[in-house]
Write a structure and sequence with these properties.
three-stranded antiparallel beta sheet; 385 residues
Length: 385
């Protein structure tokens, strides 16, 4: 499918969700632009000001970008590029590790000596980074004959109209430098195309080892589907009973299946279907509603058969009351059944055993109690030893 030039990219108007906000907050390592989710507004209940320290030398400078109008739409600094940070850092090259489009932040990898302490990765603003274009030859200095090779950085970048690639599903454009530092004499006033960094290919799979499955084992047929008759009027094979099914599974050679082949699909379709599907829930709910209506009709019919001086209205009211009490008792029994799990039942059993043992011990102590002879002890007259 040919690509189409889109003069103006459509900015999404829907707000960010919690998933998109976290994904954009963490950043990306992909160099291309597939969507414009980073231009969406952040709802108030999800807006959390993200503050990142500039570095240890300038701890007061922080970044916080939450206004969609201030976010960069098409990024020209992507992971894999080499940039320098303007200011006191000179021409020190840094490789871009990750970009955070939601906050206009460019991250760099951690230094080797700081990986063990779990520090924060160095991050700088997009506006403070200058893209490295490579080294170019410059005329020699006065009094010298050797040409110089100096690093060149792009102070101002331009882009071609964005093109959406329908095959790769991403936006594509070319970036070029309109102003460089230092100015290249050979390309003064020209647009210098800056190529995009190459995306590393995925590593090839490791060679097969002793723990890998052989190709012959993978290609070996281990399941033969049951043979059904192609005639629609032919009777279906009989479904075995539970005992026959267990015996056939335990000893398939001694007790073969009934028929030419086991009709596995006939008695496994209920086990392999999802019991929590919407259709199953609706079917169970409809069945319960039918049960409640039939139960109410049975109670009304039983009360109408024996009025005993009551009116039909009173009989129906009493039947409805008994029906509600019955449903309430069933709900309570179902709730207790679900609550009474194996762990709860075992705990209740141990508790009852301890209570029984404690009562038996107290009864034995009272039965074997003996009072010693002591003053101020009176035996009642009506009690005989």
């Amino acid at each position: 499918m040919p690509t189409a030039v889109v003069p103006k990219a459509v900015v999404p108007k829907k707000p960010l969700t919690e998933f998109l906000r976290k994904a954009l907050h963490e950043g990306t390592r992909l160099p291309w632009t597939t969507n414009f989710n980073h231009l969406r507004r952040v709802p108030r209940h999800l807006k959390k000001t993200s503050k990142y320290m500039h570095d240890s030398f300038d701890p007061d400078k922080k970044f916080s970008f939450h206004i969609p109008n201030e976010r960069i739409k098409f990024w020209n600094i992507v992971p894999g590029d080499f940039v320098r940070v303007r200011g006191r850092y000179g021409n020190k090259l840094r490789e871009v590790f990750r970009i955070r489009r939601l906050e206009n932040i460019v991250e760099f990898p951690l230094p080797e000596n700081a990986r063990g302490a779990n520090p924060t990765a160095p991050a700088y603003s997009y506006a403070s980074c200058q893209l490295f274009m490579g080294e170019y030859e410059f005329p020699p200095l006065p009094g010298s004959t050797e040409p110089r090779r100096l690093p060149v950085f792009a102070e101002r970048l331009g882009t071609t109209p964005p093109v959406y690639n329908h095959i790769a599903h991403r936006w594509e454009w070319q970036r070029f430098a309109t102003k460089t530092n230092p100015v290249i004499p050979e390309h003064k006033g020209e647009h210098i195309i800056i190529p995009w960094p190459e995306v590393p290919e995925k590593p090839a799979p490791a060679p097969a080892g002793p723990y890998d499955t052989a190709k012959e084992e993978v290609a070996r047929v281990t399941y033969v589907p049951p043979s059904f008759s192609h005639n629609l009027s032919a009777p279906l094979p009989r479904v075995p009973t539970e005992d026959e099914y267990i015996a056939g599974m335990s000893h398939p050679t001694k007790k073969p299946w009934f028929g030419a082949s086991p009709p596995v699909e006939m008695y496994l379709h209920r086990e392999l279907t999802n019991p929590h599907s919407r259709a199953k829930k609706m079917k169970r709910w409809q069945s319960h509603q039918t049960y409640k209506r039939s139960l109410l009709n049975d109670y009304i019919a039983a009360e109408m058969r024996e009025l005993n001086g009551r009116s039909s209205k009173e009989a129906r009211a009493e039947a409805t009351f008994k029906w509600r009490e019955k449903l309430s008792a069933e709900d309570e029994a179902e709730r207790r059944r679900r609550w009474l799990t194996l762990a709860v039942a075992e705990k209740a059993k141990k508790k009852q055993a301890r209570k029984t043992k404690r009562e038996a011990k107290r009864r034995d102590q009272l039965t074997q109690l003996e009072l010693l002879e002591a003053p101020n002890q009176v035996i009642p007259k009506d009690v005989h030893p």
